[in-house]
Structures are given as structure tokens and as C-alpha cells.
């Protein structure tokens, strides 16, 4: 049983998806099964995480076919970390989802909705566990197609258009990825990541391989919303149903970043990516622009969901910046931020989900007076917001500290100053929301607005509390991220 | 009691108090009583530490580690001891005053007000007891954030604008400069622990040290060095108890306390003499000191005048740190206490005048002294204490500062301090003179019309404190001089 855990990780969500669909109008049952599947996924992810925490690697041969001929699933500290993120977020968003989905999705579609959610979940898990390049593409498509459906189910009619926008951009991205993988296959005759890594050095000095690198990098950059390829993200996050935004913002871009790391470090290798192609010089300017411009845009948003969406683009910039330092410390900071930002942004979007549930929308004018009417929800928003800014004792600060150290280690003073400056922009857009919610009288004081239902509030508060817990006891996450970074760097020749 | 409990108690009491204040929010009388009891309990808890610290012990508490080698650590040394005593002691009086003021001035949201006050005192204690720079930074930020709702309390456009300036400048300087300085120190010196004699000598090149000093001094925005002083006048939109305890004592003193702490325990006075920027910062502080006094002269709004006076007085303490000799550093530390008592009295008086007459402009206050004799007498005493005239406490700190400047050979600084004293007289005495001697503009009324007792009693107490400090300066100086002792290894 234990040795089949990697397969189980994907199989649970993948088999639960059609099962959930069959419940039809028994929406409570559909929800319950989906929730159980997510919890089971988390349990498996944690078991895997514990097994590889020492830096070892689990290799699983799908159907008993030995790699490189068969498909291999391979778990190490780096992707187990991502698995835990996916498992944790989906496990905590499901209890939250029940009431939110009841309000936002018509009853006839609810079972389909959960089914699509599980498929998206399975896709993301699949991308993470597999050690087969083509398999990565397939799972990317599974998760993406399911996500398009999920976003299109948003209440606002603009959801359909933004889903279409995402579909176009996402398809371009995965197609680029596929072309890149095709080139690799032409040159090496293999699709297994480890095998690719072994065979690539012989042929690395060819235009085909460099083109493959380019296609793969651009394709994944589209998926992870690297500035300026982020245009699909703000609309998709703004108009998707609340729980979808929570889930996607915390996992989808993180998984894409993981894939980038996997290709850059494991497949192409540090030497090829950073020394020969000088990728750092491409990534760093994009990251810097990607932090600054979306942060600035976020300051001027009036819809809180869109504001947070732009902030997500900026946060992707932080992760890419860490990678662009091309050092162990920088990589650690990026991997750390995968987790810290996932819990922070998920908590924020959950608080927003609670506000949407009671207020019907989250434009700034609707939020006036929310501080008094929904004290717990707004408190969660403030605390998670502090973590986003990177105030000490929150998870965001742990990342910032390491990112700054990595910048100093690389002798990049201007970058360190820049980082501190941009966290002030985050302070600006979070505080804009806080000020309206606490110090502005509501427009129609007579309508009674009560606190969000407990079913939604408790998961929100739990996740918010975790941003503080992981901010205070940063030792654990830092150590895990260090192991993950070491595993990735060690795989480099 | 063990070290851990002795240090944890003063930190826990305001937090427990916070919960009780929120829980009893619906019953006004109970909530107000809880506030006062919390303040008194906290002061007692802080007092427990005094005998041990004055005996030369340094109680320590290591809470947890953030990252390897860096964690939340507390260590009580004389300067922190004095600061904690000052903040928690004056909180008792302010809590009583706040009850009278908030009711008298008909402010709203009392529970939120008292609750955030408790958080502010919690963070001030955290700053006082911090054992390393990161711990101090954590509480420094909490203090900024917890006082923001107090500044924005009224919720009016003016209040919100003021609060935005407040938060923007304090958060901006702390994240932009202070965090950078801390990070660089950690990077270069390999530790952030407050160590007698400093940590930078031998590890940090003076060229870097010079830059660090500038980053630290401007990063500590709460010390209100020009040009980052705008937040303090902006914070005056807050209800007066906030201006009194937080913007004359806890917040601003947290700033200069941090300055002293950084210069004495991170840089070390000996190392500081090697840095060419210490002179630059000294003259910037002197400039701030004189300019703020001149600006104060021109303010007609009483609270604004007091705010600029605070900006000026804070620079005295920065000057004390930058003169880089032990007498001046001692004078600066003493001025934390002396100025606190003087200025809180002045703010209490300004608040009492507002509660009794709704007047905020000095030009409207002619003749008021005859109707509010207690308040005006206290104002006079507070003013003399801030100016530094015997027999008030303020004379000692200024005496030390001047003789420190003289010893160090900074004749210009001595002259500047003397001019500033004249300016102090120029902006603090006229309100008293107008109050007692000029005829009232809106018709003469006979008889007393004082503010509520809960306002007048506290301000009389702090005025009395100014007098007592004149006698009590010696034990204070003895306690504080403990911080300058560098143990011989």
C-alpha cells in the first residue's frame, strides 16, 4: 500500500471526479464525497512529504513499466512540498465551499462543479508528481480544461468571457510547452525527465535544444502569469466563483512555477540555463517589472477581488525574482514563498468570499462599514493582509527576510531597496481596503448585515491563523524549503 | 519568580486586559474599571523587575526562534526598565484621564479606543524589554499598527488623512530604512543581540557603519528627525489622551529609546566616534531641535504647538546619543523621563481645556486661567519642566546634555541648546500669561469652571510628578548609568 502512494495521490481525485458527477441533485452528498477525497489527498501528500523530508527520492513505475519506457512518478522534497500546498488548500477550501457554492452555483450544476473542481485538483497533482514530460503536458490540459469550466460558472456574465480569455492564453501556453517537449523528444528520443537530463548535455549545443528551452520557458511563463504574460489572470480571478478563486490563486500558478523549476534545474540543468543561456538576465528584469507595475495597478483598483488578483501577479514576480538570483538562498526564498503566499492569498480570498456572501460584491463602496458588521471576517482580512505586506510575525515576513538576504548575498543592493519599497505598495493597497471597511459609514445603515456563516468563517480563520503560526515558527518551513532547494540544486550537474 | 514569568507578566497583563475590555464592552462602567485595573496591575508587574535590574541583574527570556540564531528574545536592562516603568505608570493616570475625557468630549467607540490602548502599551513594553533588534522591530511595527486606529478614531476626513500620513511615514521609514539597516547589520555583524559595548566594532567596516547609522536614525521614524517629522503633528487629530500618552510618551519615546538602544548596544559609543556620519546626524538633530521650536512659536492651535515642541524635545535626546559621550547619553536617557512628565501634563491640560470649553486655539484662550486655575497651574509647571527650570525635573537632563556637549568640545551645540531653551520659553509661557492676565474675549465670567474631576486629578498628579523628579533625579541617574557599563571579559 505504502509504495503505491504516488499513484494514489493522483488516483483519489481522478476517480472521485466522475463519482461526484453521478450524484446529480444530491448536492450535499456530492460535496461530502469531494471533501473526503480532498482530505484523503492531503493525508497522502503529508505521508509522501514525511518520507522524502530527508532529501531522498521515491520513484514509482506506473503499471510496472520501468523508466524510461514506462511513465515514472517521482517524489522528492521539492514536489512533495507542492503536493502539500495543493492538498492543504483543497482540504481547507472544501468546508468553506459548501455554503459559498450553494449561493453562487445553481443546484443543477453543483455536482458538475465539484466534479470539475476535483479534475482540476487531480490535474495539478498529476503535473507535480509525474516525471514524464509528455505527462506534464497532459495533466496541464486536464487541470486547465477543468479550470475553464470552473471559471465560466461564475455568477457574473463576464465570467464566460474571462474564461475564454484564459482558454486562449492557456492553450497557447500549453501548445508552446508541447512544441518544446517535441523538440526535446526529437533530439533525445526520450520523455522521462531524468533520462532527458542525462542525454541533453550531448546535444545541448544545438539550436533545436535552445529553441526547445525557449518554447518551454515561454509556455510555462504564460501558465504562471509572469509579467507581461499575465493578462488572463486578473479577469479570471475576479469573475470566478469565490472558492475557485481561492483554490486557483493558491495552487495553479505555484504548480506552474514548480514545473519551471523542474525544467530549469533538473532537465536542462543549472549550467545550461543560467550560465550558457544567462536566464537570470531575462528573469530579473521581468520579475522587477512584474512586481512593480501590477502592484501599482493594484493600488488603483476599486474591486477588491481584482486588486488581490493584481497582487497575485506581483507575488509571482517575487518568486521569479528569487529564482533569478541563481543561488541556493534565492531558490529557498522562492520555494518558501510558494507556500507562504499560498496560505496568505487563500486566506485573503476566503475573507473576500465571506464578504461576497453577505454583501453581494466587493467593490470598495460596498465594503463601507464592513469592519463593524463583519468583525471576524475583516479581522482575518487584516491579518492575512499584514502577511501579504510582510509585517514581522507573519508568514510573508519570513519570505521577505530570506529574499532580502539572497539579494544582499548576490550583492544586489538596488534590488534589496526595491523589494522594501514595493512592500510599501502592498501596504498601500491593503490599507485602502481597511480604511473603507473600518472608518467609513455604510451606505445603507438600515439593512442588517451579519457575520458570515460559521461554515465559511472557521476555515477562513484557521487559514489566517496559520499565516501567523508559520510566521512565528518559520524554522520548520525554512528547513523544508532548504531541503527542497538542495534537492533541486543537487540534481543539477 | 523566575526570569521567564517576571518578564512575561508585564507583557501578558495588557493582553488579558484587552480581552476583558472587549468582553465588558457593553457595560461602560465595568469596562472603564477594567482598563484602570489592567494599567495598575501592569505597573505592579513591571515594578517587580526593578530591584533586580538595579542590583545589576539582567533577567532574560528566550521565547522562540524565527530562523536559526535569530528569535524573539527579551532582556531587561536599565534603559528598558525605565521606559517600561514610565509607560506603564503613566498609563494608569492616562486611563483615568481618558475616562473623563472620552465622556466629557462625547467621543464614540470607547471600547475600541481602550482596547487599542492596551495593545499599544503591550507593544511599548515589548520594545522596552527587547533583547535583540529584530524583537524590537517586531514590537515597533505592532505599535505603529495599533496606534493607527487611535489616530483615525474620529473617522472624519481630517482624521483619516492625518492617520494616513501617520501610517505612511512611520511604516515607510521603518520598512524602507530600518528593516534595511537591520538586515545589513545581521548580514555584516552576524548577530542582532543588544550587547553592552556594541556588536559592530571589529565586524563592520566604519564605511558601512556610517551608512548604517543614517539608515537607523532615519528608519526610526518615531524619533521624528526632520524631514520625517510630519507624522507627529498629523497625529494630533487623535483624541487628547492618545496625544498625551502615545504622542508625548509611549510612541515617541519608543523612537528615541530605540535610538539610544541602537547607539549604546549595537554601535557602541567607542565605535560611534569612528563614524563620520555621527557628526552629520548630530547637526541634523540640532537643526531639527531649533527649527521645530521656531515652527512651534507660530502655531496657534495648542496641540499643534505642543506637537512641534515634542519634535524639538525628541531631538534633544537624539543629540544626547550623537554627542557620543557618556554624560550626554545619560542626559538623553534622563530626558526621556523628564520630558514625558512635562509634556503629558501639558497635553492633559490642553485636553481639559477642550473638554471644558471646546477651545483649541491659543488666541481664544485669553483669561481662561482664572476660570481653570488648577489646569493652568499644572500647565505652568509642565511648561517649566519641559523648558528645564529648577525646581522641576527637566533641569537635570538638560544640565547633563549641556555639560556632555561641553565636555565633548561641541561649543556650537551648547549655544544651540541655550537658544532653544529661550525658544521653549517663547512658545510655552505665553499661553499661561494670556490665560491668567489677559481679559477674556467672550465676556468675563466669575467663578471656576474646571474640567471634570477625572480630567483635573490626573493632570495635577503628573504636575506633582514633575516636581518630585527634581529630587528623584539622582536614583534615576544611578539606575540609568548601569547601561553604560561595559563588562570586562
Please describe the structure with a list of short key phrases separated by commas or semicolons:
heterodimer, A: 493 residues, mainly alpha, two-stranded antiparallel sheet, 21 helices, 2 strands, 79% helix, 2% strand, B: 489 residues, 19 helices
Regarding quaternary structure, what we see is heterodimer
The whole-angstrom Rg of chain B is: 21 Å
Count of extended strands of chain B: 2
**Percentage of β-strand residues of chain A:** under 5%
Tally of DSSP helical segments of chain B:
19
| Largest sheet, spatial ordering of strands of chain B | 1-2
Tally of alpha and pi helices of chain A: 21
Structural class of chain A: mainly alpha
Task: Provide an overview of this structure.
Chain A is mainly alpha-helical and 493 residues long. Helices cover 79% and strands 2% of the residues of chain A. Chain A has a domain at 278-493. Chain A is built from 21 helices and two strands. Chain A has a two-stranded antiparallel ribbon with strand order 1-2. The two termini of chain A are 34 Å apart. The mean pLDDT of chain A is 89. Chain B has a two-stranded antiparallel ribbon. Chain B has helices at residues 3-23, 28-47, 50-54, 78-104, 110-129, 133-151, 157-189, 206-219, 231-234, 240-267, 269-272, 277-297, 302-322, 326-357, 368-371, 373-387, 394-407, 411-437, 453-481, and strands at 60-67, 70-75. The mean pLDDT of chain B is 84. The chains are: A mainly alpha (493), B mainly alpha (489). The A-B interface holds A 386, 391-393, 398, 401, 404-405, 408-409, 416-417, 420-421, 423-424, 427, 431, 435, 438-441, 472-475, 478 and B 64-68, 72, 134, 137-138, 141-142, 145, 149, 152, 155, 159-160, 163-164, 167, 171-172, 175-176, 179-180, 183-184, 186-187.
Amino acid at each position: 500500500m505504502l509504495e503505491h502512494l504516488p499513484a494514489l495521490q493522483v488516483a483519489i481525485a481522478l476517480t472521485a471526479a466522475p463519482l461526484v458527477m453521478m450524484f446529480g441533485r444530491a448536492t450535499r452528498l456530492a460535496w461530502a464525497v469531494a471533501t473526503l477525497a480532498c482530505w484523503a489527498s492531503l493525508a497522502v501528500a503529508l505521508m509522501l512529504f514525511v518520507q522524502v523530508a530527508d532529501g531522498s527520492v521515491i520513484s514509482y513505475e506506473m503499471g510496472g513499466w520501468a523508466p524510461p519506457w514506462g511513465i515514472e512518478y517521482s517524489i522528492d522534497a521539492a514536489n512533495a512540498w507542492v503536493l502539500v500546498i495543493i492538498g492543504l488548500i483543497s482540504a481547507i477550501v472544501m468546508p468553506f465551499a459548501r455554503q459559498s457554492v450553494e449561493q453562487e452555483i445553481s443546484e443543477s450544476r453543483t455536482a458538475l462543479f465539484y466534479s470539475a473542481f476535483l479534475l482540476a485538483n487531480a490535474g495539478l497533482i498529476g503535473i507535480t508528481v509525474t516525471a514524464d514530460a509528455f505527462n506534464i503536458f497532459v495533466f496541464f490540459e486536464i487541470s486547465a480544461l477543468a479550470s475553464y469550466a470552473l471559471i465560466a460558472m461564475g455568477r457574473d456574465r463576464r465570467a464566460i468571457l474571462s474564461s475564454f480569455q484564459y482558454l486562449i492564453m492557456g492553450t497557447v501556453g500549453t501548445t508552446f510547452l508541447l512544441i518544446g517537449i517535441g523538440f526535446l523528444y526529437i533530439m533525445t528520443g526520450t520523455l522521462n525527465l531524468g533520462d532527458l537530463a542525462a542525454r541533453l548535455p550531448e546535444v545541448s549545443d544545438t539550436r533545436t535544444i535552445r529553441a526547445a528551452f525557449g518554447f518551454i520557458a515561454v509556455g510555462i511563463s504564460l501558465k504562471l502569469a509572469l509579467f507581461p504574460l499575465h493578462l488572463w489572470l486578473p479577469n479570471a480571478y475576479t469573475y470566478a466563483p469565490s472558492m475557485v478563486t481561492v483554490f486557483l490563486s493558491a495552487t495553479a500558478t505555484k504548480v506552474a512555477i514548480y514545473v519551471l523549476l523542474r525544467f530549469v534545474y533538473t532537465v536542462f540543468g543549472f549550467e545550461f540555463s543560467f550560465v550558457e543561456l544567462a536566464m537570470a538576465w531575462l528573469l530579473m528584469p521581468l520579475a522587477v517589472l512584474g512586481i512593480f507595475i501590477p502592484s501599482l495597478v493594484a493600488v488603483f483598483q476599486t474591486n477588491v477581488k481584482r486588486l488581490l488578483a493584481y497582487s497575485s501577479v506581483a507575488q509571482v514576480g517575487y518568486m521569479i525574482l528569487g529564482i533569478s538570483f541563481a543561488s541556493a538562498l534565492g531558490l529557498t526564498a522562492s520555494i518558501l514563498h510558494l507556500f507562504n503566499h499560498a496560505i496568505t492569498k487563500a486566506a485573503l480570498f476566503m475573507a473576500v468570499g465571506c464578504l461576497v456572501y453577505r454583501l453581494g460584491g466587493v467593490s470598495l463602496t460596498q465594503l463601507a462599514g464592513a469592519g463593524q458588521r463583519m468583525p471576524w471576517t475583516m479581522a482575518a482580512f487584516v491579518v492575512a493582509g499584514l502577511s501579504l505586506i510582510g509585517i514581522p510575525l507573519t508568514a510573508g515576513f519570513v519570505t521577505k527576510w530570506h529574499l532580502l538576504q539572497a539579494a544582499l548575498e548576490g550583492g544586489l543592493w538596488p534590488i534589496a531597496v526595491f523589494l522594501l519599497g514595493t512592500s510599501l505598495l502592498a501596504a498601500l493597497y491593503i490599507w485602502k481596503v481597511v480604511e473603507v471597511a473600518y472608518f467609513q459609514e455604510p451606505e445603507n445603515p438600515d439593512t442588517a448585515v451579519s457575520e458570515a456563516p460559521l461554515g465559511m468563517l472557521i476555515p477562513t480563520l484557521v487559514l489566517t491563523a496559520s499565516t501567523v503560526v508559520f510566521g512565528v515558527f518559520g524554522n520548520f518551513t525554512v528547513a523544508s524549503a532548504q531541503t527542497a532547494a538542495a534537492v533541486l540544486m543537487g540534481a543539477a550537474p | 519568580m523566575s526570569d521567564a514569568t517576571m518578564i512575561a507578566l508585564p507583557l501578558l497583563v495588557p493582553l488579558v486586559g484587552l480581552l476583558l475590555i472587549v468582553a465588558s464592552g457593553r457595560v461602560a462602567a465595568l469596562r472603564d474599571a477594567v482598563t484602570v485595573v489592567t494599567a495598575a496591575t501592569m505597573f505592579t508587574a513591571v515594578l517587580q523587575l526593578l530591584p533586580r535590574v538595579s542590583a545589576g541583574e539582567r533577567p532574560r527570556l528566550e521565547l522562540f526562534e524565527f530562523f536559526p540564531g535569530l528569535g524573539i528574545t527579551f532582556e531587561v536592562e536599565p534603559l528598558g526598565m525605565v521606559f517600561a516603568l514610565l509607560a506603564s505608570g503613566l498609563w494608569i493616570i492616562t486611563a483615568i484621564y481618558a475616562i473623563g475625557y472620552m465622556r466629557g468630549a462625547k467621543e464614540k467607540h470607547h471600547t475600541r479606543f481602550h482596547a487599542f490602548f492596551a495593545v499599544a502599551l503591550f507593544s511599548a513594553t515589548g520594545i522596552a524589554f527587547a533583547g535583540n533588534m529584530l524583537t524590537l522591530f517586531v514590537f515597533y511595527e505592532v505599535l505603529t499598527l495599533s496606534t493607527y486606529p487611535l489616530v483615525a478614531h474620529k473617522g472624519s476626513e481630517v482624521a483619516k488623512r492625518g492617520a494616513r500620513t501617520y501610517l505612511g511615514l512611520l511604516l515607510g521609514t521603518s520598512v524602507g530604512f530600518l528593516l534595511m539597516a537591520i538586515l545589513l547589520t545581521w548580514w555584516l555583524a552576524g548577530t542582532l543581540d543588544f550587547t553592552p559595548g556594541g556588536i559592530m566594532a571589529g565586524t563592520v567596516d566604519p564605511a558601512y557603519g556610517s551608512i548604517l547609522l543614517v539608515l537607523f536614525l532615519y528608519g526610526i521614524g518615531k524619533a521624528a528627525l526632520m524631514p520625517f517629522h510630519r507624522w507627529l503633528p498629523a497625529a494630533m487629530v487623535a483624541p487628547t489622551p492618545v496625544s498625551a500618552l502615545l504622542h508625548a510618551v509611549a510612541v515617541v519615546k519608543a523612537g528615541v529609546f530605540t535610538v539610544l538602544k541602537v547607539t549604546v548596544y549595537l554601535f557602541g559609543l567607542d565605535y560611534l566616534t569612528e563614524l563620520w556620519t555621527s557628526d552629520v546626524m548630530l547637526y541634523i538633530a540640532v537643526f531639527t531641535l531649533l527649527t521645530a521650536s521656531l515652527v512651534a512659536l507660530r502655531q496657534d492651535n495648542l496641540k499643534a504647538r505642543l506637537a512641534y515642541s515634542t519634535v524639538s524635545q525628541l531631538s534633544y535626546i537624539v543629540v544626547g546619543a550623537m554627542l557620543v559621550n557618556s554624560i550626554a547619553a545619560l542626559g538623553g536617557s534622563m530626558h526621556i523621563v523628564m520630558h514625558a512628565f512635562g509634556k503629558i501634563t501639558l497635553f492633559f491640560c490642553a485636553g481639559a481645556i477642550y473638554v471644558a470649553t471646546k477651545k483649541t486655539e491659543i488666541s481664544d484662550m485669553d483669561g481662561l486661567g482664572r476660570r481653570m486655575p488648577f489646569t493652568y497651574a499644572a500647565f505652568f509647571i509642565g511648561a517649566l519642566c519641559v523648558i528645564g527650570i529648577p525646581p522641576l525635573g527637566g533641569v537635570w537632563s538638560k544640565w547633563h546634555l549641556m555639560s556632555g556637549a561641553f565636555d565633548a568640545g561641541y561649543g556650537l551645540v551648547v549655544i544651540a541648546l541655550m537658544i532653544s531653551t529661550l525658544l521653549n520659553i517663547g512658545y510655552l509661557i505665553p499661553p499661561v500669561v494670556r490665560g491668567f492676565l489677559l481679559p477674556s474675549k467672550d465676556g468675563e465670567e466669575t467663578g471656576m469652571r474646571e474640567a471634570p474631576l477625572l480630567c483635573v486629578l490626573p493632570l495635577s498628579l503628573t504636575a506633582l510628578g514633575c516636581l518630585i523628579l527634581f529630587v528623584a533625579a539622582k536614583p534615576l541617574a544611578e539606575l540609568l548609568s548601569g547601561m553604560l557599563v561595559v563588562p570586562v571579559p
